[in-house]
Amino acid sequence: MAIKRGSKVDASFSTASMSDVVFLLLVFLLISTTLINPNALKLMLPKSNNQLNVKPYTTVSITKDLQYYVEDEYVPFPEVESRLRAILGDVENPVVSLHADKSVPIEEVVKVMNILKDNNFQMILATAPL
Fold it and tell me: Can you give the pTM of this predicted structure?
């Protein structure tokens, strides 16, 4: 007399839901890594222990090769002022973050600071924490 089972257990495993989870994790990591490092230029900033929590509206960067970037887009120095006016024209009390490599001569930094002052833009000098 053989005893027969009424239901058989299926030993297979469906990986469809696992692939969905992996895909969502991949999308999340791709999005979050772009938010972590918004500044694509590699600059060696001077060090300081004073850090502000003011959010700048735009950035001006000066590389060690004395190339100027406004919002990570290369701009020749004579066009920096017009580019900033175009970006910050209608903004009330705009704050500009100035990122200058620590090897840049102070004269170049002061030239950009004068442009910001002449246009009544507030400025933050970006530094690296100590």
Answer: 0.61
